Structure formats: structure tokens, C-alpha cells
UniProtKB/TrEMBL annotation:
Gene3D superfamilies: 3.30.450.40, Histidine kinase-like ATPase, C-terminal domain (3.30.565.10), PAS domain (3.30.450.20), PPM-type phosphatase domain (3.60.40.10). Residues 401-575 form the GAF domain. Keywords: ATP-binding, Cell membrane, Hydrolase, Kinase, Membrane, Nucleotide-binding, Phosphoprotein, Transferase, Transmembrane, Transmembrane helix, Two-component regulatory system. It comes from Streptomyces tropicalis. Residues 593-813 form the PPM-type phosphatase domain. Its main location: membrane. This is SpoIIE family protein phosphatase.
Amino acid sequence: MVRLPDRAGTRSTRPPGDRSVPEAPGPARGVPARTGGRGPAGARTGAPAESRTDGTSRKDVSGGRGGLRATLRGRSVAGQVFVLQVVIVLLLVVSAVVALVLQVRHDSTQEARNRSLAVAQTFAHAPGIAEALQSPDPTAVLQPRAEAARRAAHVDFIVAMSTDGIRYTHPKPDRIGKKFVGTLAPAQAGGIVVEEVDGTIGRLVQAVVPVRSADGRIVGLVSAGVTTANVGGVADRQLPVVLGAAAAALALATAGTALVSRRLLRQTHGLGPGEMTRMYEHHDAVLHSVREGVIILGDGGELLLANDEAHRLLGLPQDAERRHVDDLGLEADIAGLLSSGRLATDEVHLVGDRLLAVNQRPTDLDGGPPGSVATLRDSTELRALSGRAELTRERLSLLYDAGVGIGTTLEVARTAEELAEVSVPRFADFTTVDLYDPVLIGEDPESASALRRVASAGVRADAPLYPVGRQIRFVAASPQGRSLRTGRPVLEPRLQDAPGWLAQDPERGREVVGHGIHSLITVPVRTGAQVLGVVSFWRSQGTEPFDAEELVLAEELVARAAVSIDNARRYTREHSMAVTLQRSLLPRSLPEQSALDIAFRYLPAQAGVGGDWFDVLPLSGARVALVVGDVVGHGLHAAATMGRLRTAVHNFSALDLPPDELLGLLDELVARIDQDETADGVSAPITGATCLYAVYDPVSRRCAVARAGHPPPAVVAPDGGVSFPEVPAGPPLGLGGLPFEAADLALEEGSRLVLYTDGLVEDRERDIDAGLAQLQASLETSGGSPEETCRAVLDALLPSRPVDDVALLVARTRALGADRTAEWDVPADPAAVGEVRAWVTRRLSQWGLDDLAFTTELVLSELVTNAIRYGSEPIRVRMLRDRTLICEVFDSSDTSPHLRYAASTDEGGRGLFLVAQLCDRWGTRYTPTGKVIWAEQSLP
């Protein structure tokens, strides 16, 4: 341990606070002197241990009146602690006394107010007081009673007075007959007064209450009061007790403080100069044992003190103390810093093979001696550790960012792009991602198939690597081929020495190496036992080649990305399956019909497949049914449910039912499906299924509409006006219990009927009322054709990626004119069949359909004969010339004919069989007044 010379000697007799340096032989100025040396056994030499610089012995310090007097004088820490504790206790006692006195006085005053009021009220309500106040001599009756009550109640006065305030009673008889001092108006009005006033007997608290007669009149007043002197007397009587208790507490606290201070004095030995010197020696020993260099320099750059660690770090000679730093053979920069004495914080200097962190501070900032103190810390090993820690932190940060930034979407290509973007330039200069072609469409990878470059990122755009979209087949000897074959990563620190890499594409390989790309890591994209592709990390000139530790990092990075790529692949497969299912369930083309010009749009939701659907169904009599439905939810279940409902509507529409009856049957079907699936426990029941069903008749130009929990239709008139007809809103399908109602709309030719699902007009940020208003505005400015209407509506109402499915159906109405229809009323007479045949022949001749005359006469003859024989009047025949020739026979009967095979012996039963053979279609539909049997024939 390095020590300054001449440390032993006599202790200084100057007080601890004296900063002057005595002019005496010994150590140099600014060098602290040691109070004693160490003997062979380690015992200290020098001044006797029992002596003190202030002339007192250790015995005097530890006990006796001398130690107590030193404590009371406050010359030691123990004395200062004693005085501080006594002052604190005294302040607490004084505060407690003041608070107690104030509280007692407050409580006494409050008690006086309560007592005066209670006494006044009691005396005023006492029996006979009201009669005495109305007697000829109230004083003679009330004065004795008032004085007796005053003494019993311990108040200073009870005064009975007239309503004008003239006293009838008073403790001092000479005050009787005089005006009462105080506020009387509230009491004269029937109230109560409690106040503090300066009365005739001094400062007092008094209460004034009215005295009422039996009939409720105020016949006088009564006042009772207590003087402030008596109120304060309570506090004065309690004050000696309080002060005595405070004095006892102060005495006990002082005694306890004295004991504590005496013990502190004995344990610290008074903290005199001798003890401070001994403490300094202990600090000196600690100074030389710490693992940090400490140097103290004088004002002129002279080295005053250097501990052992400073000697080791700087290589100082043994006689370095008292020499100038420039003479110690130090490096120029460290010597200049130490001799300058300037402020320095964690400055790093090279000393030999060490990097030293130097902190330097002047010592005279707070009035200390001139000079400076510097600390030295060896940061060589710390720098190496910090470098590795920083590298580890950067790699962890890269993995964290990869976990957050890769897999933000469920798209395979985008996930691969995110992997490339995260790794460049933090890990590699160029990154390429190659995946098997089946992976991109959601299928399982096939090792025999080619790979496709899905993503590429780099610090430059001119690298001669395969471009994105290029189909690649890696040879088995290439790093990528080995990774795909073995499922393990491959490190090629020097590409120019990798023959397998050059075997892949010699010309391109030489271009890549010539471009400066010199190091490669290939990592297979693995999920379980499957290899989806390979990721290649490239480094170019200016960066170190990849090493084994970075190979592990690359494998971890790709492993995290592989999970997201596989999730995107699986989602792509499921999404493709659901889309395929949904596309197969939706109508691919619209059926041919002449009643409506139709345009439609279907937009899947951002989440993928949903349950919205629409349909156009030709019906008998040139009528057309329009259907729009919605199943809440997304995915395969919603698509499958939509297909079931669409199929059910197809089947029910074949029955030619009115819209409300069809929705009723559909509601029962959904309820049965819910019951079956709930009992099965596997599939979820249908919830939130809605439907709108409309039937348009081009002959009457009327449209029957019914809806089950679905938004209402919109109608655009030929002049451009938009309206939302009142269509009764039934409950959603499957709830049951309520019938559905249909609305009958009259539509002019050229009107546009707009049907849609709720995804068009409603979302999380827009309620349905605002959506309907936007729909109306877009329809008012849309073009006249259904296609223009669809385009205008979607442009105005839909974002680029809707959150819900949207189905839109726009139908412009046509009319079947009178020149294409013919009707006849037929009497219920078999002879009328001949007339019908004549009418039909003439009308077909007018339409240019003479080729159909024979078949049509035969069909109508059979249908009319059945109506006459089995139906009831009125009977009517109608022919429509549309895409087909339609023959209809109306009657008021609800009996339906059935097709059957007639036996060879039967005389009848072959009519409907002939109709079925001669016509393309035939059937029966019911009306509110009967039924219609119809048949269709193709036009020549």
C-alpha cells in the first residue's frame, strides 16, 4: 500500500473546523498527516489512546458531570442531538397546550349557547308564565321563580320581559323596568335569538324566546344567558392541570433525551479530533484497497497521493509522490489531463494496452485546498463486455421486431416480404425468399415442384439476383438445394470458394460474386416435417462475413417467420375452399326473362366469405321473383347456410306462392334446421338470417314484396325520384310466432327496383339511417341503366375493403303491352270450348304464330274442359306472347289437377298427359279467388 512519507507525528491541536495549515515541520502543505504509525504487531504508535486534544480524559467523556456538561454545551454530536430533541418536545407540548385551551374554550362557548337556549325555552314554557306576564304585577310573581330557576340552571341571568323588551325580572333588582339589551325582533315575530352581546353584566351569551298564551299570542319574552367570564373560567380551571401534565411530559422527555444523548456520547466518544484522526486512518486504508485508481494533485500538477490501483494502472514508480505528473513518464494525453486540473467526466484514454475512463474534479470548489482529484477505471474488459452485450441487444431487438412485424396479414406473399424487409439491412444486405408454388395457393408443398421467388429486399436495387416472380429449380449441390434436401441451414462464408453455388448458374454466380456479394446463409422454411421453401441471406462488400453465431440467429429468424407463412398458407387454403363453395352457391348468370333489366354486384367482406346472396327466379305468367338474403357471419358455415336457404327459396318459388307465404315456409325451415343442429351439438344454429322476396308481374306492372328482418327496397321512378316503400318488417327467419305481411307496389315502366343487404348501408361507423340517406342521394344522381346504378351506388357507399358482405340487385321494370296479351271470359258450357279454339286461332294468326295453332287449340281445349267440368265460374282464358307462348286458364275452384297414367280401359284421364307432352312446362298456381293452370310452349 502506498503511503505518503512522514505520516507519523503529533496530532494537530486545531479545532475540526479550522482550515488553516500550521507553520510547523512535517508533511508538505496539503498532505494530511497520519496521527500514528503501526508497530510490529499492528498496534498504533504515537499519541496515547486515552488522551484528548480538549484536555478531558476518556473517563470524563463516558460518564460524570463533565460528560454531561459537554453534552449540554452542545460541542459534540450527542449534545446537538440532545438540544434538538428537547426543542422538538417543547414545541410539541406547547402546541398541545394551545390546542387544548382553544378546544376547551370552543366547547365551553358552545355549551353556553346550548344551556342558555335550553333554560330560556324551559322557563318560557313553564306553567303559569304566560298568565303571570298578563297579570297586573308580573315582577312580584316572576322574580322569585326566575331567580330560583337561574340558580338551579347555573346561568347568570333569567329575564322575563314584555313584548317591548321592558324587564320584569333580573338578578340585579335595580335593572328591573329598564330596556333589555339585545336583539328582540326575531323573538317578537315568534323566532328564537341566540347571540353574544355586551350586556349590563358584561360580555355574555344569551338566548331570547317568545312566551305564547293559550290562544297562540306572544305575551312576553324570556331571555337566559351566561357571561363570557364564567365560560372562560372552565378553561382557566383546567389550564393548571394541562400545564402540569405538559411539564411532567417535558421532564420525562428531557430525561429520556438526556439518557439517549449520554449513551450516544459514550458510544461515539464525543467525536473529538482524536477520533476524527482515527477515522481518517480507516478511510486511508479503504482508499488503498478499492479497485479504482485515486490520484490527488496539488495546484501546480504535483502528485500528492496515488493509491495502489492508480500505481498499477498508470505504472507509476514507487517515489511518484511529490513529483510533477510530467516527470512520471505517462502518455502525453493522460499527463496533460492530470496536470491541467480541468473538469473531466468518463474521458477514455489509452495507457499502454488499457482503456482508462478518467473522472477529474477540482478540490477547491467548496473552499477546499487548491488542486484536483482524479479517479481511474479500467474499461478494457468492460468495453469488450459492452460490445457483446450491445450485439446481443441488437439481435434480440431484431427478433422482437420480427415477431411484431412479420405476419401482420394472412397473405403468403406479404408475409415473405415482411421477412425480407425486417432482415435488411440489420442482418443482411440482401434477402430473398423462395417458396414452392403450391404453398402460394394454400396447398401442401411438393418437393418435386419448382420454387418461385416471392420476396426480395436489398440495400441496392441493382444486385444480379433472380427477380421476384422467377421460377427456380435449385441444383442439389447449391446451398439452397442442400437446405431443401436436409432441412438444415447452410453457411457459406466465402461464396467465391463455394463450388455448389457456382454450379447453380455459373454465369449469374460470377455476376453475383463480381457485384461484391461474398457471404451467404440459406435457411429452410420449415413447419414440422414440411419444408415450404428457403430463405437466403446475402452480405456484400463492406460488411463482415457471416459466422456460426449469426447462422443460429438466421435460423431463429426464419423459424418465427415460418409459423406466419404456414398460417397464411392454411388461411389461403381455407379461404379458397370457402370462396369456391360460395361461388358455386351464388348464381353465375341470370336466367333469361323479359320482365326486368337486371344488374347485380356481390362484394365479399374484408374477412372473406360471407352469407349474403341474391337470386332471380322466372315464374309462370311472365312474372319474375327477386330474392336478396343475408346470413350473419363469415366463413364456411355462413356460406353453407346461405346455400341451403337459397336452395329452399328455389324449391318454394316453384310452388308459385305469394311472398308472405313463401317467407312463412322459409321461417319454418330455418326453425327446423336450428332444432336439428342444436340437438346435434356440432354446428351452430342459424342466427340473424334475413330475406326479402319480391314478385313482379309485367302484365299488371305490380310488385308484391315481403321481408323478414331485411332492409326495405328502394324504388327509383322514371323521373329520378327515389322512395323507400312501406313494406311491413317481419322478424328474422327462424324466430317464428308472427306472420309475414306483403306490400303491393305499383311500378311504372322504366322504374328501378333496388334490393340490397345491410352491408351496403350499415357498418361500425355508420348507422342505417345515415346509410339510407347516402343511398338515396347516390340513386338520385345515378344513371338510368341498372349497370350505371350499381356502379354509382358502390362508388358512393362502399370503402375499398368492406367489413361486411354486400349484395346489390338493381332491376328496371318492363311492361308486357296489350298487343302481346289476350283474355276471354268463358261460360261454364262445354259448347264454349269451340269458341275458345276459334279465338285462339285468330289471335295466333295476328301474332304470326300459325304453326302453334293446332297445339295451342288442343292444350286450351283440354284445360278449359277441365275447368268447366271440375272448376267453377268465373272462368277466364289468357294468352301471353313473351319469350314463350303462355296459356293460362283461371277458375274460382281450389281443386288442383294431377297428372296420371290412364289405363287402356279408361275413357278419360289423358288430357293433362297430352298437355305435359306438348308443352315445355305446365303447372298450377293459386290466387286469392281460385287457381290458374298454365302451360308454356317455345316460340318457333
